[in-house]
């Protein structure tokens, strides 16, 4: 029996997975790769981030991405367009970035305003520059097991790295992913299949999500509902990865509002073997993998071997 299941109630024995520290290390490795690319090949990887509209939360993320991009020595190109920008105009910008040799990675911040077809925008990005891994070509490569030629979506890849670090070999483990989005749930399932897990995707029509989770050695919560996964859904000793980032209503007027995940953390940490916190878990990994993907993209585009991380 695991430590967690034998400890007194309220002891909170789960290992708290430090995604922030892991991401910092990963960014350090990316910075060394960038140095090597500059020295050996005169290549400076470049990442273009496109934001349409003035959503406050999106602006914060985009600023943070840009800062971390320059911190690892890469070039950051930021394009902020007014909310009323037409689809054609955005597609034109994407095409210009596709043919710009200084730009190796393109990220169009989602969600886009309603009048823009985001699928069309994503599928206009050159798959080789699609550092989000959202293009249908990259989704197809991942689904067919051609992972070495794909761009892998940042959040699922970050979760996989944390799981590999925590568990090592995942062969035969039961993994339940709560949520079936194209951005997280589906690619996460593919990556865990590639790890030889037995994978279940649970979603809003699943008959008994709690029962599915109770069978799982690994639970990945990616539904976008605050504290949706409860502590008594978790098998003692299981590893819990919380992808959710939900800002709760401020408790006092003018307050900032607490950030919570898709897992009821205080409950789940009493039962789990290991769990990611929010903030400081998966979020920082997403950005670190984005930078790593940009290096990978730059190397492939230049036809040079990727330096060791
Ligand atoms: N094309 C596209 N690609 C994305 O990858 C993408 C996107 N659109 N739209 C928005 C979401 C959200 N996202 C986050 C990345 C990092 C943190 C992150 O670093 N969070 C920190 C701090 C959170 C905070 O304090 O607000 C943490 O969890 O510790 C959060 C959220 C990427 N997204
Ligand atoms: Mg769903």
UniProtKB/TrEMBL annotation:
PROSITE patterns: THF_DHG_CYH_1, THF_DHG_CYH_2. Its EC number is 1.5.1.5, 3.5.4.9. Residues 17-132 form the Tetrahydrofolate dehydrogenase/cyclohydrolase catalytic domain. Keywords: Amino-acid biosynthesis, Histidine biosynthesis, Hydrolase, Methionine biosynthesis, Multifunctional enzyme, NADP, One-carbon metabolism, Oxidoreductase, Purine biosynthesis. It holds the Pfam family THF_DHG_CYH_C. Residues 153-301 form the Tetrahydrofolate dehydrogenase/cyclohydrolase NAD(P)-binding domain. NADP(+) binds at residues 179-181, 245. It catalyses: (6R)-5,10-methylene-5,6,7,8-tetrahydrofolate + NADP(+) = (6R)-5,10-methenyltetrahydrofolate + NADPH; (6R)-5,10-methenyltetrahydrofolate + H2O = (6R)-10-formyltetrahydrofolate + H(+). GO terms for biological process: L-histidine biosynthetic process; methionine biosynthetic process; purine nucleotide biosynthetic process; tetrahydrofolate interconversion. One of its GO terms (molecular function) is methylenetetrahydrofolate dehydrogenase (NADP+) activity. InterPro entries: Aminoacid_DH-like_N_sf (IPR046346), NAD(P)-bd_dom_sf (IPR036291), THF_DH/CycHdrlase (IPR000672), THF_DH/CycHdrlase_cat_dom (IPR020630), THF_DH/CycHdrlase_CS (IPR020867), THF_DH/CycHdrlase_NAD-bd_dom (IPR020631). One of its GO terms (cellular component) is cytosol. Homodimer. Belongs to the tetrahydrofolate dehydrogenase/cyclohydrolase family. This is Bifunctional protein FolD. It comes from Ferruginivarius sediminum. The gene is folD.
């Amino acid at each position: 029996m695991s430590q967690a299941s034998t400890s007194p109630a309220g002891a909170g024995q789960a290992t708290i997975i430090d995604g922030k520290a892991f991401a910092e290390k990963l960014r350090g490795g990316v910075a060394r790769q960038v140095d090597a690319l500059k020295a050996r090949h005169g290549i400076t990887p470049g990442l273009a981030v496109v934001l349409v509209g003035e959503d406050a939360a999106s602006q914060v993320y985009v600023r943070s991405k840009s800062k971390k991009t320059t911190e690892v020595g890469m070039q950051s190109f930021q394009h902020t367009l007014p909310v009323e920008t037409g689809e054609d105009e955005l597609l034109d910008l994407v095409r210009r970035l596709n043919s710009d040799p200084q730009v190796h990675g393109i990220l169009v911040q989602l969600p886009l305003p309603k009048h823009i077809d985001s699928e069309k925008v994503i599928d206009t990005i050159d798959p080789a520059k699609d550092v989000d891994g959202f293009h249908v070509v990259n989704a197809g490569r991942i689904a067919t097991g051609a992972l070495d030629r794909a761009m892998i979506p940042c959040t699922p890849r970050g979760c996989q790295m944390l799981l590999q670090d925590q568990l090592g070999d995942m062969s035969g483990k039961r993994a339940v992913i709560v949520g079936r989005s194209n951005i997280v749930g589906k690619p996460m399932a593919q990556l865990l299949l590639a790890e030889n897990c037995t994978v279940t995707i649970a979603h809003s029509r699943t008959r008994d999500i709690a029962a599915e989770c109770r069978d799982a050695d690994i639970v990945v919560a990616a539904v976008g509902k605050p504290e949706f996964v409860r502590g008594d859904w978790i098998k003692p000793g299981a590893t819990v990865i919380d992808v959710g980032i939900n800002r709760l209503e401020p408790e006092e007027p003018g307050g900032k509002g607490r950030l919570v995940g898709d897992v009821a953390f205080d409950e789940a940490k009493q039962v789990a073997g290991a769990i990611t916190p929010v903030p400081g878990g998966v979020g920082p990994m997403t950005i670190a993998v984005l930078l790593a993907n940009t290096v990978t993209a730059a190397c492939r585009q230049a036809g040079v071997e990727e330096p060791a991380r």
